[in-house]
Each structure stands twice: as structure tokens, then as C-alpha cells.
Amino acid sequence: MKFNTKTIHGGQAPDAAYGSVMPPIYQTSTYAQTTPGDHKGYAYSRSANPTRTALEKSFASIENGEFGLAFGSGLAAIDAVLKLLEPGDEVIATNDLYGGTYRIFTSIFKKFGIKFNFIGMDNASNIENYINDNTKLIWVETPTNPMMTIIDLRATAAIAKKYKVWLAVDNTFATPYLQRPLDLGADIVMHSATKYLGGHSDLVMGALIVKDKELANKLYFIQNASGAICGPQDSFLALRGIKTLHVRMQRHCENGKAVALYLANHPKIENVYWPGFESHPNHHIAKEQMNDFGGMVSFTTKGDNYEEAIKILEHLEIFTLAESLGGVESLAGHPASMTHASIPKDVREKIGIVDSLIRLSVGIEDEEDLIADLKHAIG
Ligand code: PLP
Q1: Euclidean distance between CA atoms 276 and 296, whole angstroms
Q2: Are 7 and 107 members of one domain?
Q3: The domain spanning residue 305 has which CATH number?
Q4: Which of 242, 267, 290 is where one domain is finished?
């Protein structure tokens, strides 16, 4: 099955009971047993629920994995990966990460004795400088949130294999429409399914996808033992969202390109971060590992003018000023005070998250309306 077909049919067949084409919402916490332990495959909905199972199969299918696991949020999925580790273990992570990922690493798991090294990964070979006997996990986002850095997944996976450490890739920004990290050698793919997979800004959810059965069993144990699962209603919504992922992503990419080009030619804009520019430092890698460049674009105002950036955010009308990304509607955010506020200012600024940085999640509205909105707000 090819990708577009998988988004609609992957891991799903009409429901056995009445042939319903969409998996029913099994809104139940428990299941009748005829004698203790004798049931139809489901005993309690923390452990498994048929609507969630359908979603987990869909996750596995679209990422070319074998096993999918659904969680109550992207951070709950990250939490489950970190629970694979033991005190004394070390993680190497990219220094440009979603703020909440940085926060769970440094404010929660660090105090349980796990060490995090945040490093630049523009050149994947830098990772080898930080690997030692305690290293167990490499954590990568690409494109990164919000600086749109591109990390070479094939090269990173080769390093992970050489040293026998896990490579986990947060594939939230790219989605499997654009890049499939498991095919490039990653061990774990993670998603904030809240974003493009759900696609309609109406749920909060996380996903993990792996190929290896032993790793899947470890993660399933953590999912059940820690209990951060998502409910059947949200599972249904995510399944519905995934069915249009390919057509939405195609338009996100077209509109993202139009917005990036418009901003790049605007005299009041200083820097535009979008991996589709030939001048992007790792454009050649993006071109190789992604099918297109996505709908996320970040930019700064001329002279890093904070007041100008706030004025733009206040004057946008079609772009809604809001947290999050990846929905059909266009959103604008101010990383320094919103998504990345939990990262200390000096750490933030070192990687380019300055006070005038604006991050756009370009939606699937008409391109002309989006450009007109930016024109009006920037002036
Ligand atoms: N990873 C990335 C790249 C994100 O942008 C986000 C949220 O914005 C997360 C992880 C966390 O996901 P959630 O908000 O679903 O917990």
C-alpha cells in the first residue's frame, strides 16, 4: 500500500460487528468476561481499547513501523520514552527543541539521575564527541521547533547503530507525509498528534511508533503501567484527521512556500527560517530526506525589533495568535513568551530564539488571503 492509501486504510478494516467503515467509539472502561481471564481480547481500557487499537495500527502503518502506541499528549509519549532509561544514563539531544521537551528533560528526568547533553547537530558527526558508555538515547527533532534546523537522520541513525544507542525522532513538524525516520534507521518515532496528525486543533495526543518487538513491549509496559493513554473519542478524531493528512500536507507545503517567499522579500523582515530556501544551511539534507518542506515558517523583524514583532502579532486577522500548530487554520506564535518560555533566555538566544522571532503554522486557507493578512499586519 502506498502512503495516501495507508492514511485512509492503514491497519483498518470495516468493524466486524456491523461493518461500520469508521471504527466505532468504544466508550467503555471495561469488558465482560465469561470466566476470569476469558474475554475477547480487551479487559480494561487503560491496557487496550478497540478504538485506540485502530488508531495505533494506523500510526504504525503511516510511519512504516510495526507497532504504534497512543498517549494522552505528546509529552506523555516523550515521558514514556524517557522511562526506558535508568539513573546514570545519558541522553544526547539537539539544542533546538520544543520548550516542553526541554522542560521535561531538565526539570523532571534530570532529578531522577538522567544526564542530558544539548548539542548542535547541524553536523551529525558532532554527536560522536558526546557519546560515552552511559549514553543510551539520542533525541532529535527535524525540522526543529522553532528554528527549522535540519538534522541528517541517516547519518545520525548510523552513529546510533555504531554505538548501540536508541535514536528517537520527534516527527511532529514533518509528519510521515514528508519524512519517515524509521526507514532512515531511527528506532523510535514520536509525535505530538495534537498537531498535523489530528490536524483540526480539536484534541491533545501523543504517539510512538517502533519496528522492534522487544522495544515495543517495553514501551507498551510503560504505557500500561504509567497509564497516560488517550480516550476513545480522541482516538476516533485522530483517525478521522489522519485520513486527510496527505491532502492537508500538500496544501500546507504550498502555502508555507508562498509565505516564506513573501517574507524573504519583505524589507521589514530580517531572517526567514524555512528549509526550502537554497540558502538554508542544510537545505541539501532536507531535499534528500523530506518530500517537501512543510508548512512551518519562522522569521524575525528588521533589527530584531520586539515592538514591531508584537505589533505584527496583534494585527494579524486570519492567522490566529495562539499556542500550537499543524491545524487547518493558520496560527502565529511568539516562541520567546509562549512555546519556548520554559527555556532560559540566554539558552534560547544562543540558538536564535530572539524576542522578535515569530513562528507561523501556515494553514490550508487561500494563499492570497494569507499573504494579504501578513501584508496588512507587517505594513
Ligand atoms: N514536540 C513538538 C515538536 C511540539 O511542538 C510539541 C507541542 O507543541 C510537543 C512535542 C508536545 O506535544 P503535546 O503538546 O501534544 O504534549
Answers
A1: 11
A2: yes
A3: 3.90.1150.10
A4: 242
Q: What is the mean pLDDT of the chain?
A: 97
* pTM of full prediction above 0.90: yes
Q: Which of 219, 242, 265 is the last residue of a domain?
A: 242
Distance 89 CA to ligand 1 centre (A): 24
Distance CA 48, CA 201 (A): 25
Average pLDDT, integer, range 72-91? 98
Instruction: For 276-301, give the DSSP string.
Output: TSTTSTTHHHHHHH-SS--SEEEEEE
Residue nearest to atom 11 of ligand 1 (CA): 74
Instruction: Determine if ligand 1 sits within 6 Å of the CB of residue 199.
Output: no
Check residue 117 and give its pLDDT: 98
Q: Is 46 a catalytic residue?
A: yes
Domain that holds residue 325: 245-378
Nearest CA to ligand 1 atom 13: 74
Catalytic (active site) residue 220:
no
Q: Is 170 a catalytic residue?
A: yes
Q: What are phi and psi of 367, to 5 degrees?
A: -55, -40
Same domain, 214 and 287: no
Mean pLDDT of 113-134: 97
pLDDT tens by residue, 219-260: 999 999 999 999 999 999 999 999 999 999 999 999 999 999
Q: Is the CB of 100 under 6 A from ligand 1?
A: yes
Residue 72 CA to ligand 1 center (angstroms) comes to 12
